[in-house]
Amino acid sequence: MVGTSPITRSRGNAVLLHTRGTGGIIPLQNVTILCFALIFSLLFIIALSCAFLGADAEDVPPFKTMLDDIATNDPGVVLLGENVDIDVDEPSITVSWSLVACGDSFELDGSSGVHKSQCGLPSMALWIYSDNSPEPAGTYDPAAIPFVRKTGQRRRIENLVRFDSDHTLDVHKALLYPFDTYLLAGTLRAVNASNVTVPIQKLSTIERVTSFLVATSDVESYEVINGTQVPTRDFDLYVTRPGQLQFYTLLLFGINWMLSHITIGHVMLARRLVDIRSMAKHLVVCLCYPSHHPAAEEIDMIICASCVLTILLLIMLREYDEMEGKETPRPITRRPLLSPPPPPLRTPKVSSKPPAPPIPPQKSPLKPFLLRSKVRTRSIAMERGEVTCRKDELNTGFVFPPISHGNGIVHHRSRSSRSRLGTIGLGGPSGSASGSKSSRSTTLNSLKE
To answer: DSSP class of residue 430?
Structure first.
């Protein structure tokens, strides 16, 4: 019968598959991971760059809707605050006003299209007074506006149609940064070449500047000059911080405080060390913290600087200890070792069989030799000067019944001698008695010797 041979893999291929993959997943090399990281970084930067495309091409200019409404319903002179410079340290605000006129009777010929609206430049000379100042804050002369030769249109030169007015900030509502709020109230009055006050129909400013949000409200007002009411225009500016700025400021505030706490932790760790090189690492870490940046809070800088000085002092002390040949003991905290629980007591099993009887000890055949050694020890004791006492003991110890001593001291015999005498007393053979007498005489002879 013809069979099919199984497909086998070589051992080298099996080893290669085992080393290059784990669980069916082949790990990536370091160069591949680096390439992926670079590609992701480039895609992220390109995506952010595309987010700024078309930022300048707004659908509707900021003042277009308002200017068209004024040109249709209430023509007149309009002042637009196209730039607001806020200085909270002064504290003051500088507003750059631009002169605009809406309506055919107020608009200069060939100047329409300001902010892509129906309004243009004023057709009359104007002097603008700010906050009842005796000197005008800005002047405007339509005769100074140049023409474009090809089109005949008027050019809008910023320095000819714009003026600045400085105002003092009200800081009563200024809270802690970044929740500070400022208020500004001001008034403007326009006068023509005939010294006749020209009504200002609208005052408005941009809503967003660097690091601030500006909300503007204006109201029609009047002043009394030489007993005559003259029309003016008042405005109020409410200056606040954007919400995004407040969020990032609080985030940086929390990070700076966390880093300050970490510097304190590094000081505590460095205090437990003896090696100066290890302490220098903690010093470098504290010096690299961004809390030392000038934009950081003053208290954060004080804490970080104090930590750096503390580590420097600790390094000086360790250097001094090494110079003196002393070592600062480092407290070592060890966790107590948990002893294992004792094993359970095992109760012996009760056997139903009765215990075996005890085996009586066998008499050793060397007992006579041991007894002779005892006698020899007595002879050694007799050599020390106890011969007389031992002689009396032997003379009286083998008499039955024993003779009582006058001093009341009874010398007891050993167990072996008692067993012999008991045997004799119970009517033992006479040979044993004669043997005992011969042994006694032998003992006495050895004592005499």
So the answer is: H
> Per-residue pLDDT tens for 370-386?
444 444 445 555 555 55
CB-based contact 308:283 (threshold 8 Å) = yes
116 Rama class: left (phi>0) / alpha (psi -120 to 50) / beta: left
CA triple 218-220-223, angle to 5 deg: 125
Residue 87 is given by DSSP the state: E
Phi-psi region of 79 (alpha: psi -120 to 50; beta: other; left: phi over 0): beta
Res. 281: pLDDT tops 80: yes
Is residue 231 within 8 A of residue 222, CB to CB? The reply is: yes
What pairing do the DSSP bridges indicate for beta strands 182-192 and 197-198?
antiparallel
Beta-carbon contacts of residue 410 (< 8 Å; ≥ 6 apart): 402, 404
Both structure tokens of 152: 């005949």
CB 144 within 8 A of CB 151: no
The answer to whether the Cα torsion of 243, 247, 253, 254 is positive or negative is: positive
Beta bridge partners of 184: 237
**pTM of structure:** 0.56
Query: Of 168, 172, 199, whose CA–CA distance to 186 is shortest?
Result: 168
